[in-house]
Amino acid sequence: MLCSAVLVNTTLSVTCPFTHGNPAETRFTWFRGNTSANGSHQNHSLSSVQLSDEGYYKRKVNTTMNPTVCATQEAYDETTFYADVQCSPRSLPFSAPVATVYRRINETAILSFTVVAYPPTIDASAYDWRKQVDSEWKSLHNNSRFQMSISNDRLQTNLSISQLQIDNFTNF
């Protein structure tokens, strides 16, 4: 079984490799799961792929052999492939970024960032909290004042800053 990864809103094109038989007339049929056919050529494309297009697809290629002495026979071959639909991580579209957070010195602030990603990120290193210092961005690491966490579904990360100091009133 083949597996083809494709990003949402792109086109997935699959070609059915085959060798012409005798006679050369060949028919192609494409199936989604075990349901109705959705293609009849050697090449099959899914345009503007959506998450709902993910799943198993089957292609069947067949020919009818008409020998002069024997009865007519059907010859066919089938191949199954899996369309693995993924989307690029992006910030949550219905959550406007908070431009300003109001806190006092020595208080705690919790910053959250939520993404839409399918499949969710696997590795915690995909999230990198950074703090702007002058004109540079510095990566943060867990310590006594900065604690980074990731939600169980791996779609949200939080940065907890304890004992806020003057230098924490910047961009993150």
Layout: helices, strands, pairs:
Elements: E1 2-7, E2 12-15, E3 27-32, E4 43-46, E5 55-65, E6 73-91, E7 109-118, E8 130-133, E9 136-139, E10 146-150, E11 156-161
Parallel strand pairs: 1-6
Antiparallel strand pairs: 2-4, 3-5, 5-6, 6-7, 7-11, 8-9, 10-11
Tally of helical runs: 0
Q: Helical amount among residues, as a percent range?
A: under 10%
- Whole-number average pLDDT? 79
Number of domains: 2
* Strand count: 11
CATH class of the largest domain: Mainly Beta
Largest beta-sheet characterization: 7 strands, mixed
Q: Roughly what fraction of the amino acids lie in strands? A: over 45%
Identify the CATH architecture of the largest domain: Sandwich
Please provide the ordered H/E string of secondary-structure elements: EEEEEEEEEEE
Catalogue the unreliable spans.
none
Radius of gyration: 27 Å
- Separation of the first and last Cα atoms: 45 Å
CATH fourth-tier homologous superfamily of the largest domain: Immunoglobulins
